[in-house]
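Thread title: Can someone regenerate the structure for this chain?

I was given the following input by a collaborator and told the matching structure tokens would be attached. They weren't. Posting the sequence so someone can regenerate them.
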Amino acid sequence: MSGSFTFLREVCMRQWTGWWRPVALACLMTGPLVGQGSGAGAAATSPHIVVTNDMLLQAATSGDWLMYGHNYWNNRFSPLATINATNVKNLVPRMVFQTGTPQLGSFETTPVVVNGVMYLTTPAVPNNEVIAVDLHTQKTLWRYTHKNAGVSTACCGPNNRGVAIAGGTLYLGTLDGQLVALDQATGKEKWAVQVGDPAEGYTETMAPLVIDDKVIIGTSGAEYGIRGFVRAYNAATGAQMWNWYTIPSPQEGGWWGRWSRTTGEGDNLNRNIVKEKADSAKYADAWMHGGGSMWMTPAYDAETKTLFVGIGNPSPDLDGSIRPGDNLWSESVVAIDATTGKFKWGYQEVPHDVWDLDVVSPPVIAMLGGKKVVVEAGKTGWVYVLDAATGKLVRRSEAFVPQENMFAQPSDSGTRMLPGANGGQEWSPIAINPTLSYAYTEGLHQPMHYKTHYAPWERGRLWLGSAFVAISGEAQWGNVTAIDLATGKKVWQVKTDQPMIGGATATAGGLLFTGEGNGWFKAYDAKTGAVLWQYYCGAGVNAAPSVFSMDGEEFVVVAAGGNFQLGFPLGDAVFVFGLPKAM
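Best answer:
Regenerated them for you:
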């Protein structure tokens, strides 16, 4: 088709140090990923390797990409170093695939790659799809299609961030609130369970996590007044093993907390505590629709069998008058016993949030001073470093985005505050280089007005409680920042033309890979922030990349399909980059 050929000619260009250079079309192995229906197109000879529990436990040292965050610590750090600061300028697209799916949602998949087989998901519009591709042969092995029930409650644009894999099975969360198990070799459905009712706002966009015999999944939907949860399902049968509600009932201690006047670091929240307490009886049941989404894949410490999860905003997002108290455990990093689902500790970044500054970027485990810490980049614009054993704050970083009028209350006329409701750091996962002890954030600068209005809860209807509006005429941009976890100081920062949303990945080759909404995919020097290479992909690169090895070579794979919420150009391409193959 001439249209596809034109597109491929356009993306077969790369740029570094200011010079354009064409890449021969022969470097591209292209074509739509074909196969229709559940499990279509399975290969006669399977190249699939069954992922064992031991492989997952040792994922940090693996050349495969076995889970959303690469390893249980969620640090998105690959030990591969063949591609390095010296030769990264030579990267070319060795393979480009187009999924052929409608370009109607955000393409945010992080592909899982095992033994040269790539498992990726599509943006969930109109259906959730999983595609298995043999990268050795550039052939589709199978394609699974989950036909979503009509979903009108998906906040922030439909998307899907990937699958989990273990024991010959893939696990997928669907936009209509299901958890589905697929046969790894054929794509045939093994079982499916309904996690939540999409008519009430429960949807699934996160990549699940497999731990031993359990599949861990949360839910989104706080913009619709759901009560959030984290759940474990039996990996073999789909039976529910435990449930932990992110919003505790009165019998579980309640969500009122300490009636905090400040953040844990002393920032004034400008709350009217007297009025809140006076209204507490009137709104005693507010917790039942209290929100608290778990948007993203958690981190896991196998030694202590602890999950570290990020919990989102309370409901309604911006009207605190009808939900008195601190609204535990919204806006928090929480530690949960992975075996039992019991609460261990919680750290609330913003008590009684009325600015939608939820904890959505995935928590990450790191070593600091010989101790385990949990790192989370907040929508507030700070990186939080917590003691993994106790949840106590070790430090809060310098702000990595501009802050202005922080924690000023919304008003009828509109209150200006920075950062706005998108952050800070949105869903984008950070990466951590354990050798440098640097965390890499992706910031958004979007000045907003917060305007109040009252709205009662109605089942299945958007329930923000007020409005946040980008300020017309003010510049919006982003940045990539390296934060020294030992000091909390910014080591380097690079400004980007547009707000950053997608995710970062670091490697032992001294590199950081990330993309931008304008279509550029870039490699940075992990120490200095120098841009060493960039490639134009033809659509927004708003997904977190994977890094893997195959046949003795290192590759970087990323989806280029844009972001619906921020209006970045949509597409359906998946790029696999590598060094030029010796002829």
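Residues 1-207+533-583 form one domain.
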